[in-house]
Amino acid sequence: MAIEDYSGGLSPDAEVIVVTTNDVPGYRVTEVIGEVFGLTVRSRHVGSQIGAGFKSMMGGELKGLTKTLVETRNQAMERLIEAARARGANAVLMMRFDVTDAAQVGTEVCAYGTAAVVAKDGA
């Protein structure tokens, strides 16, 4: 499998800048809108759980589950961006992920951060 299957993030031409920092180098924050989040819950597939169980006995990476988690995080991030854009933001600062079990049947992934409006320095 290719590295794209195991990585996430935004394309360089994304409309909303998402960073894990308090600010964006080369930009100034002109307005703080507030907290935004994107949430998704994925159920566990019985077949993948059985396969993961066998793999865990032998050791090694659970590639199918890794790929599923990457897809889930990317979906949560897409929803975060949609929420920020809907509130008039062009940036999300201090973005984080939170992952928890959801009622023993799935995994909840929440991407959250602070929606803001930023402008290039000197503009």
TrEMBL record:
SUPFAM superfamilies: YbjQ-like. Belongs to the UPF0145 family. HAMAP family: UPF0145 (MF_00338). This is UPF0145 protein GCM10023082_41710. It comes from Streptomyces tremellae. The lineage of its organism: Bacteria, Bacillati, Actinomycetota, Actinomycetes, Kitasatosporales.
